[in-house]
Amino acid sequence: MYSWLVFIHAVSAMVSIGPFFVLIPMLRRLKTADGDLLHSYLDSFRFVVRLSKHTGHVLVASGLLLMWLGGWPWTTPWIFGTFVVLFASLLFMARAFSPTIRKLREPEHDRQALLRKLSRSLYLYLFVLFVMLWLMIMKPMLW
Protein backbone atom coordinates (compact mmCIF):
# COMPACT_ATOMS: atom_id res chain seq x y z
CA MET A 1 0.00 0.00 0.00
CA TYR A 2 2.75 2.46 0.96
CA SER A 3 4.70 1.91 -2.27
CA TRP A 4 1.54 2.53 -4.33
CA LEU A 5 0.99 5.79 -2.46
CA VAL A 6 4.57 6.83 -3.21
CA PHE A 7 3.92 6.06 -6.88
CA ILE A 8 0.64 8.04 -6.89
CA HIS A 9 2.38 10.91 -5.11
CA ALA A 10 5.24 10.96 -7.64
CA VAL A 11 2.94 10.76 -10.68
CA SER A 12 0.71 13.53 -9.35
CA ALA A 13 3.83 15.70 -8.83
CA MET A 14 4.89 15.08 -12.44
CA VAL A 15 1.41 15.83 -13.80
CA SER A 16 1.11 19.01 -11.73
CA ILE A 17 4.50 20.35 -12.90
CA GLY A 18 5.01 18.96 -16.40
CA PRO A 19 2.27 20.72 -18.37
CA PHE A 20 3.61 24.13 -17.36
CA PHE A 21 6.63 23.52 -19.60
CA VAL A 22 4.33 23.33 -22.64
CA LEU A 23 3.25 26.87 -21.86
CA ILE A 24 6.77 28.35 -22.20
CA PRO A 25 6.93 28.26 -26.03
CA MET A 26 3.26 29.25 -26.12
CA LEU A 27 4.10 32.58 -24.46
CA ARG A 28 5.98 33.72 -27.59
CA ARG A 29 3.06 32.76 -29.82
CA LEU A 30 0.61 34.69 -27.65
CA LYS A 31 2.33 37.94 -28.66
CA THR A 32 1.01 37.74 -32.22
CA ALA A 33 -2.01 35.43 -31.94
CA ASP A 34 -5.45 36.85 -32.67
CA GLY A 35 -9.02 35.63 -32.72
CA ASP A 36 -9.62 31.92 -32.35
CA LEU A 37 -5.91 31.13 -32.12
CA LEU A 38 -5.52 33.52 -29.18
CA HIS A 39 -8.50 31.94 -27.42
CA SER A 40 -7.18 28.43 -27.99
CA TYR A 41 -3.81 29.39 -26.43
CA LEU A 42 -5.57 30.99 -23.49
CA ASP A 43 -7.77 27.89 -23.13
CA SER A 44 -4.60 25.81 -22.98
CA PHE A 45 -3.25 28.01 -20.19
CA ARG A 46 -6.53 27.70 -18.30
CA PHE A 47 -6.54 23.92 -18.77
CA VAL A 48 -2.99 23.57 -17.42
CA VAL A 49 -3.83 25.70 -14.37
CA ARG A 50 -6.94 23.60 -13.65
CA LEU A 51 -5.07 20.34 -14.20
CA SER A 52 -2.38 21.49 -11.79
CA LYS A 53 -4.99 22.40 -9.18
CA HIS A 54 -6.70 19.00 -9.39
CA THR A 55 -3.51 16.98 -9.41
CA GLY A 56 -2.40 19.14 -6.51
CA HIS A 57 -5.35 17.75 -4.53
CA VAL A 58 -4.14 14.22 -5.22
CA LEU A 59 -0.60 15.27 -4.38
CA VAL A 60 -1.57 16.74 -1.00
CA ALA A 61 -3.91 13.86 -0.10
CA SER A 62 -1.33 11.21 -0.97
CA GLY A 63 1.35 13.20 0.86
CA LEU A 64 -0.78 13.37 4.00
CA LEU A 65 -1.44 9.63 3.80
CA LEU A 66 2.28 8.97 3.35
CA MET A 67 3.02 11.09 6.40
CA TRP A 68 0.45 9.23 8.45
CA LEU A 69 1.43 5.74 7.30
CA GLY A 70 5.16 6.51 7.45
CA GLY A 71 5.03 8.06 10.89
CA TRP A 72 6.49 11.38 9.75
CA PRO A 73 5.67 14.18 12.25
CA TRP A 74 4.51 17.64 11.11
CA THR A 75 7.56 19.14 12.79
CA THR A 76 9.95 17.42 10.37
CA PRO A 77 11.74 20.40 8.76
CA TRP A 78 11.28 19.40 5.12
CA ILE A 79 7.59 18.56 5.66
CA PHE A 80 6.90 21.80 7.48
CA GLY A 81 8.85 23.75 4.83
CA THR A 82 6.94 22.02 2.03
CA PHE A 83 3.59 22.96 3.57
CA VAL A 84 4.67 26.59 4.07
CA VAL A 85 5.71 26.82 0.41
CA LEU A 86 2.53 24.95 -0.63
CA PHE A 87 0.20 27.41 1.10
CA ALA A 88 2.14 30.35 -0.31
CA SER A 89 1.89 28.82 -3.80
CA LEU A 90 -1.89 28.37 -3.41
CA LEU A 91 -2.29 32.06 -2.65
CA PHE A 92 0.01 32.94 -5.53
CA MET A 93 -1.72 30.66 -8.04
CA ALA A 94 -5.16 32.03 -7.17
CA ARG A 95 -4.08 35.53 -8.17
CA ALA A 96 -1.43 34.91 -10.81
CA PHE A 97 -3.05 33.11 -13.72
CA SER A 98 -6.84 33.26 -13.97
CA PRO A 99 -7.28 37.05 -13.65
CA THR A 100 -4.50 37.68 -16.18
CA ILE A 101 -5.93 35.14 -18.64
CA ARG A 102 -9.37 36.76 -18.28
CA LYS A 103 -7.92 40.21 -19.02
CA LEU A 104 -6.05 38.87 -22.08
CA ARG A 105 -9.41 37.82 -23.54
CA GLU A 106 -10.52 41.46 -23.49
CA PRO A 107 -9.16 43.51 -26.42
CA GLU A 108 -8.88 46.83 -24.58
CA HIS A 109 -6.07 45.74 -22.24
CA ASP A 110 -2.34 46.15 -22.87
CA ARG A 111 -1.44 42.70 -24.19
CA GLN A 112 2.33 43.12 -23.85
CA ALA A 113 2.09 44.10 -20.17
CA LEU A 114 -0.27 41.22 -19.44
CA LEU A 115 2.00 38.76 -21.27
CA ARG A 116 4.98 39.98 -19.24
CA LYS A 117 2.93 39.42 -16.08
CA LEU A 118 1.83 35.97 -17.28
CA SER A 119 5.41 35.04 -18.17
CA ARG A 120 6.75 36.24 -14.83
CA SER A 121 4.00 34.30 -13.04
CA LEU A 122 4.76 31.15 -15.00
CA TYR A 123 8.48 31.20 -14.22
CA LEU A 124 7.93 32.15 -10.59
CA TYR A 125 5.38 29.36 -10.14
CA LEU A 126 7.76 26.83 -11.72
CA PHE A 127 10.45 27.99 -9.29
CA VAL A 128 8.07 27.51 -6.35
CA LEU A 129 7.12 24.03 -7.60
CA PHE A 130 10.79 23.11 -7.89
CA VAL A 131 11.44 24.33 -4.35
CA MET A 132 8.69 22.01 -3.10
CA LEU A 133 10.06 19.18 -5.22
CA TRP A 134 13.55 19.79 -3.83
CA LEU A 135 12.23 19.72 -0.27
CA MET A 136 10.41 16.42 -0.84
CA ILE A 137 13.26 14.69 -2.65
CA MET A 138 16.30 15.96 -0.74
CA LYS A 139 14.57 16.08 2.68
CA PRO A 140 16.97 18.70 4.05
CA MET A 141 17.27 19.22 7.80
CA LEU A 142 16.62 22.95 7.77
CA TRP A 143 16.92 23.25 11.56
Describe the structure.
With 143 residues, the protein is mainly alpha-helical. It has one domain. Helix content is 83%, strand content 0%. The protein is built from six helices and no strands. Helix 2 runs antiparallel to helix 3. InterPro entries: DUF2269_transmembrane. It holds the Pfam family DUF2269. Keywords: Membrane, Transmembrane, Transmembrane helix.
* Number of DSSP E strands: 0
SS-derived structural category: mainly alpha
Which blocks of ≥5 consecutive residues have pLDDT under 50? none
Beta-strand residue percentage? under 5%
Individual helix count: 6
Span between N and C termini? 31 Å
Strand count, sense and barrel status of the largest sheet are: none
Q: Note the run of SSEs as H and E.
A: HHHHHH
Shape: elongated
Number of domains: 1
Gyration radius, in Å: 17 Å
Mean pLDDT: 91
Considering DSSP H and I runs of 4 or more, what fraction of the residues is helical? over 70%
